[in-house]
Specification:
Helix 3 packs parallel to helix 5 and helix 4 packs across helix 5. The chain has a single domain, classed as P-loop containing nucleotide triphosphate hydrolases (Rossmann fold, 3-Layer(aba) Sandwich), CATH 3.40.50.300. The chain has six helices and ten strands, in the order βββαββαβαααβαβββ. The chain binds adenosine-5'-triphosphate (ATP) and magnesium ion. The site of adenosine-5'-triphosphate has 12 residues, from strand 1, strand 2 and helix 1.
Length: 233
């Protein structure tokens, strides 16, 4: 059985009298522990799909099954629970709390979850053990993104969703973040789904989903994904 099943999902947004069809009959499956990349032009519906899988928004029609659970049928409280427990989110601009240090930022997220791992362990996993007392303003972009990955994984979620996680970083730092996200799938058994404009990452993914104008135009499986270290950045 597939871990995540998106079944004939459409998402409309109303803007005044206009209706925007952000997603139009999208069906795709994602396997547990896979590293999946979603590619597509700006406005194609990538973030919309990620947000629907993460329970941050509700489908207009269709359904999304996660680990045997139909999240499209969940009420508001159940959806909040799902987001808290099962979903870790990594954003392009980190969204750290500036007045809290690294440890406090990560602990805050751990407190939301029913089965967190320790904040110290999550911070160590992203290679920032010696930065625990630093504030976001005292760190580089790459380090801040590492903290946001630690914050996402300390909840011990099943799914790690990343929206343009390297969009604000230079390519050298970006490569390190991709390697880390990949490790979250292989070593920490998270199901990692990342949206990116950067097609260079695609050969390293287990599955590559391409979206155009709210529709899936291709789903490609890499039987032997290329090591990220070998990608020509
Ligand atoms: N909350 C919203 N209200 C109205 N329209 C929206 C909303 N969210 C997204 N849209 C529209 O839906 C379409 C798809 O948006 P989405 O954010 O999913 O694109 P994207 O592929 O993530 O683009 P980008 O690469 O620029 O982030 C766009 O036309 C966008 O304007
Ligand atoms: Mg987007």
């Amino acid at each position: 059985m597939e871990f995540i099943s998106v079944k004939n999902v459409s998402k409309d947004y109303k803007k005044g009298s206009e209706v925007i069809h952000s997603l139009n009959g999208v069906s795709v499956d994602i396997k547990q522990g896979d590293f999946t990349i979603i590619l597509g032009q700006s406005g194609s519906g990538k973030s919309t799909l990620l947000n629907l899988i993460g329970g941050m928004d509700c489908v207009t029609s269709g359904e999304i099954i996660v680990d045997g659970d139909n999240i499209s049928k969940k009420n508001k409280n159940q959806l909040t629970d799902y987001r808290r427990t099962d979903v870790g989110y990594v954003f392009q601009f980190y969204n750290l709390i500036p007045s809290l240090n690294v440890l406090e930022n990560v602990r805050l997220a751990a407190r939301l979850s029913k089965s967190p791992i320790s904040a110290e362990e999550a911070i160590t996993a992203v290679g920032l053990k010696d930065r625990m007392k630093h504030f976001p303003s005292e760190m580089s972009g790459g380090e801040m993104q590492r903290v946001s990955i630690a914050r996402a994984i300390c909840k011990n979620p099943k799914i790690l969703l990343c929206d343009e996680p390297t969009g604000a970083l230079d390519s050298v730092t970006g490569e390190k973040i991709w390697i880390l996200l990949h490790k979250m799938a292989t070593q920490y058994k998270k199901t990692v789904i990342a949206v990116t404009h950067n097609a260079l990452v695609a050969p390293a993914a287990d599955r590559v989903i391409q979206i155009k104008d709210g529709k899936i135009i291709s789903v490609q499986d890499n039987e032997n994904p290329v090591a990220l270290e070998k990608v020509a950045w």
